[in-house]
Amino acid sequence: MAKGVWIVAEQRYGALRKISFELASTARKLADQLGEEVGAILLGSGIEGLAGELGKYGVDKVYVADNALLEPYTTDAHAAAVARLVKENNPSILLFGASAQGKDLSARLVGKLATGMATDCVDVKVVDGKLLALRPMYAGKCYGEVLTSSFPQMASLRPNVFPAIENSKTPEIIKFDPGLDPGQLKTKVLEVQKDTAGKVDLTEANIIVSGGRGMKGPENYVLLEELADVLGATVGASRAAVDAGWRPQKDQVGQTGKIVSPNLYIACGISGAIQHLAGMGTSKYIVAINKDPDAPIFARADYGIVDDLFKVVPELTKEVKKLLA
Amino acid sequence: MNIVACVKQVPDTETLIKVKPDGSGIDETGIKWVMNPYDEFGVEEALRLKEKYGGDVTIVTLGPARALEALRTALAMGADKGIYINDPAFDVVDAFTVATALAAAIKGIPHDIIFCGQRAIDDDSGQVGAILAELLGIPQVAVVTKIDVEGKTIKAIRPIEGAQLLIETPLPCVVTAQKGLNEPRYASLPGIMKAKKKPVDVKGASGLGVSIDVKSKIARTLPPPARPPGKIICGEEPAEKARELAKLLREEAKVI
C-alpha cells in the first residue's frame, strides 16, 4: 500500500530554495494527519550537506542522489532518478514546487508514473485519507478541488503561499543510486545566463510594484523602480505596458503572463482588466493608485488612492524611506 | 520537416467565468471561444519552420464540436492538415488522458518536432506537453521563447526564475511555447477560404485505441474567495495620502 508524504526538494547553485522549506512544512502537516512519515528527495552534485537543513522543517528521511549527471537540472536525468526511487518506495503523496523546475519535472513524472496531478495549488489537505488539492483555474477566475485516484497523488504548490514552519528534526539520510545511463540523457544545458539586475523573480517576490498604461511611457518606470528599491520589491507590468514595448515580456503579470502571489502588490496606473486581476488576485494585500475612481482595480484593492500616480508614487517612496530608516 | 502543433480551444482572456451553482463546472453560456494563446505561438513557430525548411504542418486538437473552429483557425493561418479528436468519452478527462489520446494520434504520423502551448489558459495545468513527450519517448523543452534548428538538433531558450537557459536537444522532441517566441499571424481571408478544403481526419477513442483511465478529477468548482472591501484613502494632497498609505502598510497590514 502506498505510504508516506514525499517532496522533491529544489536546490539551485548548491543552496536549497525557499519553496523546499514550504514543501517540507506542508508535507509535515499532511503526514501528521495521516500518521505517516515525510520523505524528501534531494538531487544534484555536491549537495549532500543540504540534507540536514530539510530536517529543520520536519522531514524524517532525506533520499539523496549526489551525482554529476544530476547537475545542472535536466528533465531527463531528474525525472529518471525520481521515478526510480518513487516506484521502489511507493509514497502516497508526492509534492513539488510550482516553480519553473518543479513544473517541468512534475509534468514529466505524471507521464512516467501514469498518475494524476493538481498543478499550482494554494491549499492541500487530507480528507478521508485522500489528498484534496485546491487550485486556481482560469488564472484565478475560479477554483477547483482536485482528487487523484492513482498513486502517488501528486500536487505542485504555488511558491510564497504555504508557510515554512521550523520543526527541528535530525533526518535520516539515505543515499540512493539514481540509476542513470548517460546514453539515455538527451537534453543538455549549454548555458545559464543569469539576469544581471539580480532582482527576485516576480513569482517569488514578497513585494511587487507594477505599472500599466497609466505610466504613459517606458521612461516613467524609473518612479516605480525607485519605490521598488526602497521596498526591496520587484517591478512588474500589465499586458498593455508589455504589448506597448515599455517593459520586457518577463515582467508581465496576468493570465498570459506570470501568476503572482506576493504579500504586497502595488498597482500603479493599472485599470484592472480581468486578465490582469486574474494574475495577481491571490496577493495578500493589494494597493491601487489610479486617477480614475471607476477603475475595476479598486474593487480588488485593500487600499486605494484615487489620484495622479506621478504625484503619489514619489511621495510614497519618500514616506517609505522615512519609515524604514 | 514534419511539424505537429497541438491546439486547444479556450475561453477568451476577457471572459468572466461563472461557476455553476452545483459546483459541477463552469457555465459556458455566452463564452467567446478562441485558440489558446500559447498554442497560437506554437502554430506560428511551426509555420515559420515550414517556411524555412519545407515540410508540412499538422494540427491536432481534442475537444467537443466547437473545438473544430480552433483547428480551422490554425489551418487558415497556413497549416496543411488536421487531426480532430472528438469523442464524448473525452468530455471529462485529465491531462494524462488527453496526452494519451494526442500521443496515439501523433504516433501514426511522422513528427520531427511537436509544439504545444506551455499551458492552456483554462485549466492552467501545464502538463500535457511533458506527458505527451514521455509517452512518445522523446525529450521536451518547456516554456520556450526562442528556438533554432541545427540539423537534427534544436537549441532553445528557456527562461526560469532569474535566468535564461540555453538548452540543446535532439529531434524529435516536444517544445512548449511561451509568449515572446513570436508574434502570431492573423488568418487571411484567402487562408480562411482555403482552410475549408484542407483535410481533417476525425478520430474517436476506439479509433485511436485509447481506453479512458482518468487519474485526477475536479471534484468541485468554486468561485474565488471573496476579498473584504478595501479602504479608499482620503486626503487633500497626494503627499498626505501617500503618508497615510505608508502608515497603513506598516502598522495595519504589516507588510513593509
Main beta-sheet annotation of chain B: 7 strands, parallel
Question: Can you give the mean pLDDT of chain A?
Answer: 96
Helix content of chain B: 25-40%
Pairing-aware structural class of the strands and helices of chain B?
A: alpha/beta
Tell me the β content of chain A. 25-35%
Q: Any idea what the CATH superfamily of the largest domain in chain B is called?
A: HUPs
Q: What is the rounded distance between the termini of chain A? A: 57 Å
- Write down the overall mean pLDDT of chain B: 96
Question: What features would you describe in this structure?
Answer:
The complex is a heterodimer of chains A (325) and B (256). In chain A, strand 17, helix 8 and strand 18 (303-306) form a beta-alpha-beta unit. In chain A, helix 3 packs across helix 4 (100-113) and helix 5 (221-231) packs parallel to helix 9 (309-324). A seven-stranded parallel beta sheet of chain A has the order 7-11-6-1-4-5-12, sandwiched between helices. Chain A folds into two domains: 5-184, HUPs (Rossmann fold), CATH 3.40.50.620; 202-324, 3-Layer(aba) Sandwich (Rossmann fold), CATH 3.40.50. The mean pLDDT of chain A is 96. Chain A is 29% helix and 28% strand. By secondary structure, chain A is α/β, with parallel strands linked by helices. Chain A is elongated, with a radius of gyration of 21 Å. Chain A has helices at 18-34, 51-55, 75-89, 100-113, 221-231, 239-243, 274-280, 297-300, 309-324; strands at residues 5-8, 11-12, 15-16, 38-44, 61-66, 93-97, 117-121, 123-127, 130-137, 142-148, 153-157, 172-175, 188-194, 207-211, 234-237, 264-268, 285-290, 303-306. In chain B, strand 8 and strand 9 form a beta hairpin. In chain B, the strands form three sheets. A seven-stranded parallel beta sheet of chain B has the order 7-11-6-1-4-5-12, with helices on both faces. Chain B contains seven helices and 14 strands. In chain B, helix 3 (95-107) crosses helix 4 (128-136). The longest helix of chain B is centred in the N-terminal third of the chain and has 17 residues, at 37-53. Chain B has helices spanning 37-53, 68-77, 95-107, 128-136, 189-195, 205-208, 238-251, and strands at 2-7, 9-11, 33-35, 56-62, 81-85, 113-117, 140-144, 146-150, 153-160, 163-170, 173-177, 200-203, 216-222, 231-232. With 256 residues, chain B is of the alpha/beta class. Classes of the chains: A alpha/beta (325), B alpha/beta (256). The interface between A and B is large, with 96 and 83 residues.
